[in-house]
Design goal:
flat, two-stranded antiparallel ribbon, mainly alpha
Length: 748
């Protein structure tokens, strides 16, 4: 249904409004509503009227909505345009405001810059004024303010550095000069003063670099820079290099007194004293009031031993500077060397007046008064010097001299002790301490000190021959005393050994050797106790070695042959059989007088040294040298021992010779020796049993046994059986005999 159709249904014209449609609809509804119109078709007509009304109202609403949307859109467009316009206007206003603010800021900045520059210049100029007035702290504050306002203000850095230099704030000054050079790399003044600051701080190597750069930058003033570079090298102890710089400075300006003075000082350090004097001469020619040049020329002349000329220079230095302590001090040295001790004392008096804590002045005044034999005054001066500088060995040494001179030897020794403690290689202190000890009859101690002095300084040997001769006599006396005391311990050790007190004996021999290290008898006797009584074979061997090394020094009755015999026995016990045989050989070579003493000290073995041959045979036997052993057993038999108990020794020789022959398969000869061993055994036990009143006869079981073996080897079996039976029967009897032999001293 169209709008026009809907209007016709409602009975309206095409130009009817929505209000007209509403009125027409209401009027029709009142008539055609089904509740009001009962006629057929009323409901369809009512629905048709409703539809028409809805078409008209819906259309109207759409039209209104479209118009409203358009109006809204138009309003929005207009709003956007308005906002854009306002934004443009706002932006323009901001731009104009910004331009205004910037103009004002720039104007203010120009004004502030102008004011700041005015203030910067004002601070800087005031700082310069303060600097000129030597008000360096205030000057630095002004320069700080100027630099704070203008960080690249080169002149402010430069002047601030100068003020810091004047205040000796060299480290801070160097930092400012660094900034000056950073901002102005060719600023030679900054290099110069930075070098001065580094010099003031003792940074001489860095100062040398700056002076080198200055020589490059400013050749016009090169002489000054060479001079100061030479000074810096001087402080670095590069004296030869400093002389080269002073030479260059003098070559550019030969009229500068300082150049000659410092070149002379460098030559002085190199001990070129004549050349140094020439430079000091030139410095004095250019400047007749040059105090230091007079002083150091005096020092150079002193080193050349021109003491009188040195004194003249010190006189000039003192005339120009009356309080010149060092000129007085070194003039005192020169007077001392000229033996003008009174004049030297006057100089040191003046030094002490000017500088009361000058320890060396007291020391030299003490030496001068000592030379005048004013010993008490010298001691007082040394006391004062030591009080001021207690760690100086030479002060104690010379005070010791002074005490020695007034016979205060114990006090002198205390001083020498302290000097040696402070300086352990002080030869003169050892020598004079020895002199003082000698005066106190401390001979051993004085001998030790003189020996030490000679070891440290061979000049003492030539300088003091009389004392050395005397001390040699003292040394011999002391040695004789030690020998006598050692012999007392030796005799007591021997008595203790005889009494069976072996540990006590060893202790006595130890003391004898300690007192007299070359005591061969003590070594031998101690070795015998260790060997034969204590079974300390290795210790015994060491003692016999010492006895042999002593070459008989201190022996009373020791036979060297017997010492070798004992050492052989020790080696024998230690299983060193070849070495033992060598010592037995040496025993026989040395013992050409027919006597070898045993370990009791006085018991003499006559006629060929039975023990030596027997023990050498035993060693050879153990080594399997049976033929050589038999030869030694033969010698032992040819030189039989004497005295109680030696019958058994001869029995053993025959028995062992028989065993050796048995080993060589000389069975018949072996039987002969076994027979002799058995015979001697029977003779020994026959006498022993008679002494014991026994009614049975002991026999030698070993001899029977070995004779049985030999008879068996020869096929004499019946005789062999008899010997073996006897071997079995005699064991008990042999043991009884052994007991008697062991304890025979205790038997009645």
């Amino acid at each position: 249904m169209t709008r026009d159709e809907a209007l016709r249904i409602l009975g309206l014209e095409s130009n009817a409004t929505l209000a007209d449609a509403k009125k027409a609809y209401r009027d029709l509804v009142k008539v055609i509503h089904p509740d009001k119109d009962p006629s057929p078709g009323a409901k369809q007509r009512f629905i048709l009227v409703q539809d028409a009304y809805e078409v008209i109202t819906n259309q109207q609403m759409r039209d209104q909505s479209s118009s409203a949307e358009k109006a809204r859109q138009e309003r929005e467009r207009e709003e956007r345009e308005r906002q854009k316009r306002e934004a443009r206007e706002q932006k323009e206003r901001k731009r104009r405001e910004k331009e205004r603010v910037e103009r004002e800021r720039q104007e203010k900045a120009r004004k502030e810059q102008k004011d700041r520059e005015a203030h910067t210049i004002g601070y800087f100029e005031r700082g310069v004024e303060n600097y000129e007035l030597e008000q360096y702290v205030d000057a630095i504050k002004d320069f700080d303010a100027a630099i704070g306002l203008k960080p690249d203000f080169v002149d402010a850095y430069y002047w601030r550095a100068g003020a810091k230099n004047e205040l000796k704030q060299y480290g801070a000054a160097i930092q400012d000069y660094d900034d000056v050079i950073r901002l102005d790399p060719d600023n030679d003044d900054a290099y110069y003063w930075r070098a001065e600051a580094k010099y003031g701080l003792g940074r001489y190597g860095a100062a040398v670099q700056d002076y080198t750069e200055l020589i490059r930058l400013d050749s016009y003033n090169a002489d000054t820079y060479y001079y100061w570079r030479g000074r810096a090298k001087y402080e670095l102890k590069q004296y030869s290099a400093s002389i080269e710089d002073f030479d260059a400075a003098i070559g550019l300006d030969f009229g500068a007194d300082d150049y000659y003075y410092w070149r002379g000082s460098a030559k002085y350090r190199l001990k070129q004293f004549p050349s140094a004097v020439q430079d000091y001469d030139e410095a004095i020619r250019l400047n007749s009031d040059y105090v230091d040049a007079y002083y150091w020329r005096g020092r150079a002349k002193y080193e050349l031993k021109q003491y009188s000329a040195a004194i003249q220079d010190y006189d000039e230095a003192i005339k120009l500077k009356p309080d010149n302590v060092f000129a007085f001090y070194y003039r005192g040295w020169a007077n001392y060397n000229l033996k003008q001790y009174t004049a030297a004392i006057q100089d040191y008096d003046e030094v002490i007046r000017l500088k009361s804590d000058y320890a060396d002045a007291y020391y030299w005044r003490g030496k001068s008064t000592y030379e005048l034999k004013q010993h008490d005054a010298a001691i007082q001066d040394y006391d004062e010097a030591i009080k001021l500088k207690p760690g100086y060995a030479v002060f104690h040494y010379y005070r010791g001299w002074a005490h020695h001179s007034v016979n205060q030897h114990a006090t002198a020794i205390q001083d020498y002790d302290e000097a040696i403690r402070l300086k352990p290689d002080y030869a003169d202190a050892y020598y004079w301490r020895g002199r003082s000890k000698l005066e106190l009859n401390l001979y051993a101690d004085s001998l030790e000190d003189f020996a030490k002095a000679i070891r440290l300084n061979q000049n003492h040997v030539a300088d003091y021959p009389q004392i050395l001769d005397y001390l040699n006599q003292v040394k011999e006396e002391l040695k004789e005393e030690a020998r006598f005391e050692a012999h007392r311990h030796y005799e007591r050790g021997w008595e203790n050994s005889l009494a069976g007190q072996y540990a006590a004996a060893v202790a006595d021999y130890d003391e004898a050797i300690r007192l007299y290290p070359g005591y061969a008898d003590a070594y031998r006797e101690r070795g015998e106790v260790k060997l034969f009584r204590l079974n300390l074979y290795a210790d015994a061997l060491a003692d016999f070695n010492e006895a042999i090394e002593c070459e008989g020094e201190g022996t009373d009755h020791a036979d060297p042959a017997y010492v070798y015999y004992c050492r052989g026995r020790a080696l024998h016990q230690l299983g060193k059989f070849d070495a033992a045989i060598d010592d037995y050989d040496e025993t026989l070579n040395l013992a050409n007088d027919g006597d070898v003493y045993d370990y009791y000290g006085y018991h003499e073995i006559h006629d060929g040294y039975f023990d030596v041959y027997y023990n050498r045979a035993e060693a050879k036997f153990i080594l399997g040298r049976f033929a050589d052993a038999i030869a030694d057993y033969d010698e032992a038999i040819a030189h039989p021992p004497h005295g109680f108990g030696y019958e058994r020794d001869m029995e053993n020789v025959y028995y062992k010779r028989g065993v050796a022959k048995f080993r060589l398969r000389q069975f018949a000869d072996a039987i002969v020796d076994y027979n002799e061993a058995i015979r001697r055994n029977e003779d020994y036990y026959r006498g022993l049993l008679e002494h014991m009143k026994l009614r049975f006869k002991p026999e030698n079981s070993d001899a029977y046994y070995n004779r049985g073996r030999a008879r068996y080897k020869l096929g004499h079996y019946a005789d062999a059986v008899k010997d073996f039976n006897k071997t079995i029967r005699v064991e008990l009897v042999s043991r009884i005999a052994y007991v008697y032999r062991t304890f025979r001293k205790e038997l009645p």
